Structures are given as structure tokens and as C-alpha cells.
Amino acid sequence: MIKPDMMTGRKKKSIALAGIILLVSNVMSAQELLNMDKAMEIAMANSPNMRQTELALVRSQERLNAQRARLKSQFGVTLNPFEYQKTNRFDQQTSEWFLNESASSAGTFTVSQRFLPTDGTITLRNQFSYDYSFTESALALDPVSRTFNNRLNLSVSQPIFTYNRTKMELQTMELEYESALLRYLLIRLSLERDVAQEFYSVYSGQMRLSIAEEELKNNMESYDIIRNKVEGGLLALEELYQAEVNLATSRSSVYNADLNLQNRKDQFKVLTGMPLEEEFLIITDVRADTVAVDQQMAISHALSNRMELRQREIDIENATFSLVQSRSVNEFTGSVTASLGVQSNEERLENLFDKPTSTPSVGLTLNIPIFDWGERKSEIKAAEASLKSAEIEYETEQIDIKVNIRSVVRSLKNLENQIGIQRMTVENAQLTYDINLERYRNGDLTSLDLGMYQNQLSEAKMSLTNAIIDYKVELLNLKIQSLFDFETQQPIIPEALNRTDALK
User: Fold this and answer.
1) At how many degrees (to 10) do helices 447-482 and 165-231 cross?
2) Does some domain include residue 226?
3) Most buried of the four, 99, 109, 318, 433, by CB within 10 Å?
4) Same domain, 278 and 131
């Protein structure tokens, strides 16, 4: 027989353990509840990787805005308020030195406009100045000169026999911004997949802890049954010892499950940018609902909408630009300049515009390379190789998309079968456990055997949960691969791509 004080001590331990479980449940109920949408919202706002990518997008957007601003009319004023000089000069005609003192003040107003269709530049410039000069020379008719000057001219400069550099600069900036936007959206989709994996990992840990607590509860009930039977002389004391081992093992399982859960929560916090001190509880509806998937439709939609393909197209366009630039190395080029203006010089300011002088001008400049030792030819071959490489990468990306989607669809079908098998396994394990629990209560089964059936039921439940989670994650992977949500039968249209049009 068991001593009364031994039984009392074990009873106290059972009560204390039940109190700890109740306290843990109360603490969890006070935690922040997170579903998938809330977790993704937190990750989008706080993820370090996401924030850096967004800053890169802002940088590209502002560079594009600056490039477009440079295409608008540029206004500028240059001021030279005062300049004074006093020096000795030599007059070659009279072979004498004389002292010259001069001072001036000037200002220039300029309006410049780049003309995108032809890469020309139109400039309106007005320069107003005042010049003072004093000459100590015996031959000087008027040693003091005071003059107001004004020069107004409209000029046009137009490159010829070459490509439009202004237009290419703008297109390059637009492609850079679009590429940054695509990277932002791709990392956002990748973050959604990572958050989902960590989200379900934490949920799996919660389920394992819940199952371990349920197993502990069953072992506590089993321990009470054995203790009562041992006290009544219906079972040997060895059965109680085995029940104590089972109970201790269940307590250890609860501790290990909670430890594993806390580690997974820390990983989730790091990924989403949550404070490590913040506590939360995952809530989600994990059901074994399968979705019909059309493989050909998924591949077709992916080839039409995948952002990686657009990135490869951008690489091809940039390689084409590089080829154009390579062909311009040591090329035959020219420039035409034309100007029409008026000029006035008067001693009195009020008479400055009475008799202006017309000052038209026109000029043609040609750059004719003779021999460059093969530089241009080599640059062109290098650019052509880069272009061909970009085209091969585009074709390879298409093949990778097809292969990945085919693999995901096969995996989904396999996971559907696994869910069905695991569901049957759980039902059978539950029935087996219930039958053997009744046998155990009737004294026809040992606690060691009942613990085996309990473990089988716990593992079957976790296997079913993990199979459903794997299916959910793989279905999300298919959504990312095809940019089509087969659960809602809706395409995933990255609305942020419309921001490109908003900048134009």
C-alpha cells in the first residue's frame, strides 16, 4: 500500500501543475491576436529588407523626376557686381607704356530649353553691363570711357549624324525606375511567402504545444485512475511508478514544445520587424480545403504577367542602348548652331536701345574620325555579346517559370493525397485510442501501452496539421509563381505598377 503522505505530495503536484497550465492559458488570452493579414501588414511596415527596398524605389523615382525636370525650361541669372583692374600696358604702335584702369559690372539672364524630339537646345540670353576705363596715354583722345552695353540673342544648337542622347537618358531613367519598382514588388511577394512560412511555423508550434498539453491532461487523468486503483489494491505499485514516468515525460514534452514555440516566435518577430518583447498568438483557420488548379492556365498567366520576365526585357532594352552608344564611339558627327540677336552700346543709359545692331550668326561643325585602332569595332562586338546574353537570360527565365509551375502543381496533387491519408490516420488513431482507453479503465491494458496509443494519436494530429500547412504554403507559392489566386479565381495585378504612369 502507498503511504498517505506520498499520495498527498503527488496530489499537491498535480494541483500545482493544473494551476500553471491555467495561468499560461490566461497569459496567452491577453496576447495580441495575429492573423495572416495582420502579420503581413506588420511585416510590410517594419521589415528591414522591405524598408530598404522601398527607399531604393524612392531614390529611383526621384532621379526620374529630376531627369524630367531637366527637360523643362531652365532659368538662370549670373551676376558680376563689380570687377576692378589697374595695370601697365604696352602700345606696340607708339612703343610706349601707359597706365590703364578699368572697372565693370554685369549681369546675364538666361532661359534654356532642351528639345526632346531632336536633342537640340534653344537658348535665350540677355547680357547687360557697364564698363569704365581710364587710360593715361598722351595719344588718347578721351582718356575716360563710360559705356552701357546690352546683348540679346536667341540661339539654337542641333547635333546631327548621331543618336538622340537626351531621349536615351530619359528612357534609361524610366527603365531604372521600373526595374526598381519590379524589385520592390518581387521582394513584397517573397516577403509574403516568407511571412506565411514563419506564420504557419508558429501555428504548428502552437498546435504541438496544445497537443502536448492535451497529452499531459490525459496522462494526469490516467495517473489519477491508477493511483485510485493502487490505493484500492486493484493494481500493483509498479503501475503507479510507470504512470509517474509517463506524467514526467508529458511535462517535459510540454516544456520542449513551449521552448520550440518561443524560438519560432523570435524568428517570426525578426522577419516582420516586431519588437522581441512583444507577445502574440497566431489565429487562423487551417482547413483541408483543396483547390482546383489548371496547369496550362497558370503557365500562360505567368508568362504574360511575371515581373521577372519584364526585368529581363528591361535588361534587353538597356543592352540595346549600350549597343547604340558603342556604335557612336569615334563616329562621324556634326553640330549646327544658329543665332539671331541685337547689340547696343551707349554712354547714356536712356539712349541704349535707340540704335541697336543686328548680330546674326550661323555655324557648322563636323567631327571626322580617321583611325581609332579598332576601338569602335571592339566596343560594338562587346555590346552585341551583352545583348545576346540578355536574350538568352530571357529565354532561360521563361523555361524556369514553366518548370517551377509544373513542379508546384505536382506537389499540390501529392499534398492533396497526403491530407486524405493523414485525415484517415487521425480518425483511426482516435478510434484506437478511445477503445484502448476504455480497456485501460477496465484494467485490461497497462499504462505503458496506453501511452503508446496516446503518442500515435498526437503524432497523427501533428502530421495532419503539417500536411495542411504544407498545402497552404505550396498554394501560396503557386500564386506567387503564376500571379493568379486560384482560391479566389482572381489575377494578382500589382497596382503599384500604375505609379509609373502617374509620374508621366
Assistant:
1) 170
2) yes
3) 433
4) no
Backbone φ and ψ of 423, nearest 5°: -65, -45
Question: Taking the model in full, what pTM does it have?
Answer: 0.71
- Domain containing 142: what range? 74-115+120-162+333-368
| Grid coordinates given for 429 | 488513431
Residues 196 and 50 in one domain: yes
The alpha carbon of 480 is separated from its chain's Cα centroid by a whole number of angstroms, namely 15
Angle at 262 between CA 257 and CA 266, to 5 degrees: 150
Q: For 325-347, how does the pLDDT look when each residue is reduced to its tens digit (9 = 90+)?
A: 898 888 888 999 999 888 888 87
> With the CA atoms of 50, 51, 53 and 54 taken in that order, what torsion angle do they form, in degrees rounded to the nearest 10?
110
CB 409 within 8 A of CB 475: no
Q: Answer for the pair 451, 223: CB distance below 8 angstroms, yes or no.
A: no
Q: C-alpha 138: how far from its chain's center?
A: 79
Question: pLDDT digit string (tens) for 204-253?
Answer: 888 889 888 888 888 888 788 888 878 877 777 877 888 888 889 889 98
User: Angle at which helices 307-327 and 375-441 pack, to 10 degrees?
Assistant: 170
Residue spans of alpha helices (H) in 351-497? 375-441, 447-482
